[in-house]
Structures are given as C-alpha cells and as structure tokens.
Design brief:
119 residues, alpha/beta, 5-stranded parallel beta sheet, 5 strands, Rhodanese-like_dom_sf
Length: 119
C-alpha cells in the first residue's frame, strides 16, 4: 500500500522550518521547476538523479519519513515507491507543488525579485 499525504496534512509550523523541525521534504522535480518555486528548506534531488545521489539522504533526520513532492504527484509517487523498496521510509505528497501552491503553503524562488510559481 502506498503512503500518501496531502500538503494540507503536513503541519504548517514544521513546514516553515524544513528540515530543522524533522519534517523532510524531498523535491524530485527538474532544476528549472525547482528554480521557479519550491518549499523553503526542501531538499532538491531530481528524480533521474535519485539513485546516484540517494546517499545524500543519510544526512537528513531519520526519525521522520521523507515526504516526496513533484509538480503533480506522479514522479513523487514513483520516487517514494523506489525509496520504500530501497529501505527508506518515504511518503508521497499527493497533488504535488500544484496543490502546495493552491493551499497557500510557503514557497520561495531561486530568481530574486520574482514571485515563486509552479511550472
């Protein structure tokens, strides 16, 4: 059975201080999508690079699951399934950054002076 949560189910207070408060959000979108807008404090590893870079996750808090997010939920579902099969505790964030943005969750852009957006 797939582990899934919606952005609304993630505690707002923790989201503002990712990953300091233990909530780990892994964004598996491509570089241009990430640069346009992402959750503050999220970890960015594009899905295609995840197998080669999975070792980077060992530095994250291990007392919480890794919440995996993409644009709409498809890539993150595949990445979460792969992580779970590889021994990690991963949860797919359903609806992805599109739902994240619609629910008014905090976002930042890598482009100074430009409002963050989901592309």
């Amino acid at each position: 059975m797939e582990n899934v949560v919606s952005p609304a189910e993630l505690p707002t207070a923790e989201v503002r201080d990712l990953p300091k408060d233990g909530l780990v959000l892994l964004d598996v979108r491509e570089d241009d999508e990430w640069a346009a807008g992402h959750a503050p404090g999220a970890v960015h590893i594009p899905m295609g690079e995840l197998p080669a870079r999975v070792g980077e996750l060992t530095d994250l808090p291990d007392d919480q699951p890794i919440h995996v997010i993409c644009r709409s939920g498809g890539r993150s579902a595949r990445a979460a399934a792969w992580l779970n099969q590889s021994g990690w505790d991963a949860v797919n964030v359903a609806g992805g950054m599109g739902s994240w943005q619609r629910e008014g969750r905090p976002m930042v852009s890598e482009h100074p002076g430009i409002e963050p957006e989901v592309i």
